[in-house]
C-alpha cells in the first residue's frame, strides 16, 4: 500500500519500497537515480518513515542500487544524514544488512561524509557489491 502522498500521484517520485518478505524478513530496495524527486529531502524522509512504519519493526534488509548514481545524488547530503538519523532513532536495530549494488565513486564519497552520523551497527552491516565491508576510518 502506497501511503506517500507524492508517490500516490506518481510512483516514480521517490524510490524506497518493500520488494519481498522471506522468513519474516522484509526486503527493501532503493535506486535514487530512478526517483524523479531525488532532491525532495523532506518528502523522501517522510516516504522512508511511512514505509518502515508499515514494517512494524520487523527485521529487514535494504538493497541500495547505485545504478545511475551521480554527483547530483551524492550532493543530497541532508537526505542521507536524515536517513541516518531516522535509522538511529527507529528502525535501525531491526536492519540486518545494507547491500550496496552497482557502486560508483560518488556513493563511496557520500558514505565517507555520512560515516560519523551512523551507528556502529549500521557501519557494520554495510556490504558493497563484492561482499566486502567498508570502513571509512581508513
CATH domain topology = Phosphatidylinositol Transfer Protein Sec14p
> Would you identify the CATH H-level superfamily?
CRAL-TRIO lipid binding domain
Shape: globular
Structural class: alpha/beta
Question: Explain this structure to me?
Answer:
The chain has a single domain, classed as CRAL-TRIO lipid binding domain (Phosphatidylinositol Transfer Protein Sec14p). By secondary structure, the protein is an alpha/beta fold. Helix 2 runs parallel beside helix 4. 37% of the residues lie in helices and 22% in strands. A hairpin with a 3-residue loop joins strand 5 and strand 6. Strands 1-2-3-4-5-6 form a 6-stranded mixed sheet. The protein is globular, with a radius of gyration of 14 Å.
What is the topology?
Elements: H1 5-9, E1 17-22, E2 25-30, H2 41-54, E3 60-65, H3 71-74, H4 77-89, E4 95-101, H5 105-114, H6 120-124, E5 126-128, E6 132-133
Parallel strand pairs: 2-3, 3-4, 4-5
Antiparallel strand pairs: 1-2, 5-6
Structure keywords:
single chain; 138 residues; alpha/beta; Phosphatidylinositol Transfer Protein Sec14p; 6-stranded mixed β-sheet; 37% helix; globular
